[in-house]
UniProtKB/TrEMBL annotation:
This is Protein nucleotidyltransferase YdiU. The gene is ydiU. It catalyses: L-seryl-[protein] + UTP = O-(5'-uridylyl)-L-seryl-[protein] + diphosphate; L-threonyl-[protein] + ATP = 3-O-(5'-adenylyl)-L-threonyl-[protein] + diphosphate; L-seryl-[protein] + ATP = 3-O-(5'-adenylyl)-L-seryl-[protein] + diphosphate; L-tyrosyl-[protein] + ATP = O-(5'-adenylyl)-L-tyrosyl-[protein] + diphosphate. ATP binds at G99, G101, R102, K121, D133, G134, R184, R191, D274. Its cofactor is Mg(2+); Mn(2+).
Length: 496
């Protein structure tokens, strides 16, 4: 039996039919290559809820053959592994060619959720690794696995993670750690940087081919003749603008800091992608910088909305050769200025239990955010306690969070008057909008410490909690409390 036949017979059949829309774009867009195997792979966790969404058997995914396949040690029948090329702006500076330096796309599978692409992150070097080793470490892989589940549980558009596998293979970061591979899932992993790459190189045929693929696959309504003068590329930019505005508004409402909003980390589908030095806010500090590598604070929490618009402008520049009209390109970007505040206000009204919209609502939100920042007050605990108060609970538990009691008393009097105008049960609405369980950094850290010792039980516990963060889970109240003092000393960098 020759080698190709032997490999085909050993390949694991996942079940669903594979589709390779991105691979059909041709070799200018990627390099086909196989993952680099890791020694002695083991299972860390399977996201059973995601497996069910995809129509996959979670028990089978936990088997040794699947663990080998999702580590890159065994082929998946029907997969067509490749690494894509893109470019981008990193920390506001043009970085030139980048690409999938440690991620390998396997292809898309047909699922009840539509076609979903599977990508192995940490599967070895590619032609785009530059000076990198192509690997991911257990620490960062667990963080991405849990955070993508947490964001999905909160209703924030995101890539997801199906499986994490580990290996004793040493990997050097700030210190020597062990290797891991995350199987990521999304309808597409196309980024702003894919468009920047071909535009910057003057490869306009490839730029048009990529744009047509994205439009025809994900945004076919952009070809409607009444959209922006019948220009489908301007309509594409407008659609991405609106999706990005909505996504970032959700980030701000839930207190999520991405940490590295480079243009190559921005999804063309408006998904949260590339979880590295992320953080959910503990205390409400608008200037919070969660990335230890971000020395200038470019990606601070309160700067995320403006950075997103800057990134969209870069995408507009990349698409301009196809749009061909400066006024049309600017018109496609303009909706961000209204869409972002509109989306954020809607999210903040929901957090306050306000189903209707009134003229003083924005001021009510701004006043409480100022009081939270002045404390600073723990962001998730405040909103959960306020929800309980609106549902008939004790106001003292909320008031005790503030040093400025008089300021809070003045605000809550206005809030109670506003709440009296609301029909239905605003407290119940708030409990469904303000999570009890948030994936704080110290919770991740505790799970990682156990995982490094071979105990993945805390990963499983946190996965369960963040997938249903609005439920009470009374046996786990300790994971919904204030962070310990040592949590303020956790430092997360781009190497995570």
């Amino acid at each position: 039996m020759d080698q190709a036949l032997a490999e085909a017979s050993a390949a694991l059949e996942l079940g669903p039919a594979w589709q390779h829309g991105f691979a059909q774009l041709g070799p200018a867009f990627f390099t086909e290559l196989r993952p680099t195997p890791l020694p002695d792979p083991h299972l860390v966790s399977v996201n059973r809820r995601l497996a069910a969404d995809l129509g996959l058997d979670a028990d089978r995914l936990a088997g040794s053959d699947a663990v080998a396949a999702f580590t890159g040690n065994q082929a998946l029948q029907g997969a067509r592994p490749l690494a894509s090329v893109y470019s981008g702006h990193q920390f506001g500076v043009w970085a030139g060619q980048l690409g999938d330096g440690r991620a390998i796309l396997l292809g898309g599978i047909a699922t009840p959720q539509g076609v979903q692409e599977l990508q192995l992150k940490g599967a070895g070097r590619t032609p785009y690794s530059r000076m990198g080793d192509g690997r991911a470490v257990l620490r960062s892989s667990i963080r991405e696995y849990l955070c993508s589940a947490a964001m999905h549980g909160l209703g924030v558009p995101t890539t997801r993670a199906l499986v994490v596998t580990g290996s004793p293979q040493p990997v050097r970061r700030e210190e020597v750690e062990t290797a891991a591979v995350v199987t990521r899932v999304a309808p597409s992993f196309v980024r702003f940087g894919h468009f920047e790459h071909f535009s910057a190189r003057g490869q306009l045929d490839e730029l048009r081919q990529l744009a047509d693929y994205v439009i025809d696959t994900f945004y076919p309504h952009c070809r409607a003749p009444d959209r922006l003068g019948g220009n489908p590329y301007a309509a594409l930019l407008e659609e991405v603008t609106l999706r990005t505005a909505a996504m970032v508004a959700q980030w701000q409402a839930v207190g999520f800091c991405h940490g590295v909003m480079n243009t190559d980390n921005m999804s063309i589908l408006g998904l949260t992608i590339d979880y590295g030095p992320f953080q959910f806010l503990d205390a409400f500090v608008p200037t919070q910088i969660c990335n230890h590598s971000d020395e200038t604070g470019r990606y601070a929490f309160n700067r995320q909305p403006n950075v997103a618009y800057w990134n969209l402008f870069c995408l507009g520049q990349a698409l301009f050769p196809l749009i061909g009209d400066e006024e049309l390109a600017l018109a496609a970007l303009e909706p961000y200025k209204a869409a972002f505040p509109r989306e954020l206000e809607a999210r903040m009204r929901a957090k306050l239990g306000l189903a209707s919209e009134k003229s003083g609502d924005r001021q009510l939100v701004e006043q409480i955010l100022s009081l939270l920042a002045a404390g600073p007050v723990d962001y998730p605990i405040f909103w959960r306690r306020l929800s309980r108060f609106a549902a008939g609970g004790d106001l003292a538990a909320v008031r005790d969070l503030f040093l400025d009691r008089a300021g809070f008393d003045g605000w809550v009097a206005q809030y109670e008057a506003r709440l009296a105008d609301e029909a239905g049960e605003p407290g119940a609405r708030m409990l469904a909008a303000n999570p009890k369980y948030v994936l704080r950094n110290h919770l991740c850290e505790l799970a990682i410490r156990q995982a490094k010792l071979g105990d993945f039980s805390e990963v499983e516990t946190l996965l369960s909690l963040v997938q249903s963060p609005f439920e009470e889970h009374p046996d786990h109240d300790d994971r919904a409390g204030f962070p310990p003092d040592w949590a303020t000393h956790i430092e997360i960098s781009c190497s995570s």
